[in-house]
Amino acid sequence: MQSVTIYTKATCGYCAAAKALLKSKHVAFDEIPVDGDLAKQEEMTKRANGGWTVPQIFIGTTHVGGCDDLHALERAGKLDALLNGG
Q1: Which fold is adopted by the domain 4-83?
Q2: Which residues is 4 bridged to in the sheet?
Q3: Per-residue pLDDT for 86 more than 80?
Q4: Is the pLDDT at 49 greater than 80, yes or no?
Q5: Rounded to an integer, what distance in angstroms lies between the CA atom of residue 16 and that of residue 70?
Q6: CA-based nearest residue to 69, from 47, 85, 84, 54
Q7: Quick one: average pLDDT of 12-21?
Q8: Cβ of 41: how many Cβ atoms within 10 Å?
Q9: 3-class SS shares of the chain: helix, strand, coil, % to 5
Q10: In what order do the strands lie in the sheet with 56-59?
Q11: Mean of the pLDDT values across residues 34-60?
């Protein structure tokens, strides 16, 4: 199973939805809250190639994008393969 990292903010509904999908698949993830933390926000933006909205989701070294991107992978039947390193 690939490592999963998700950058979030506490009041973000899209963050909650992305985490709910991952939890429903029993996927462990590292959550990095960026609320009020300029250094973490900068780290996220750099790692996400300029992406500054939350969530920003990474599976292994792959930048998935945000919540809509994560759900699109699930609908396309590609999320499980990505999570398993494929």
Answers
A1: Glutaredoxin (3.40.30)
A2: 59
A3: no
A4: yes
A5: 12
A6: 54
A7: 98
A8: 17
A9: 40, 20, 40
A10: 30-33, 4-8, 56-59, 62-65
A11: 96
SS3 readout for 20-40: HHHHHCCCCCEEEECCCCHHH
Element (H, E) at 55: none
| Radius of gyration of the chain from its Cα atoms, rounded to whole angstroms | 12
Tokens of residue 1, six digits? 């199973």
How many other β-carbons are positioned within 10 Å of the β-carbon of residue 74? 16
pLDDT of residue 81: 96
Res 1: pLDDT = 84
Residue for token pair 């996927």: 27
Mean predicted lDDT score pLDDT of the chain: 96
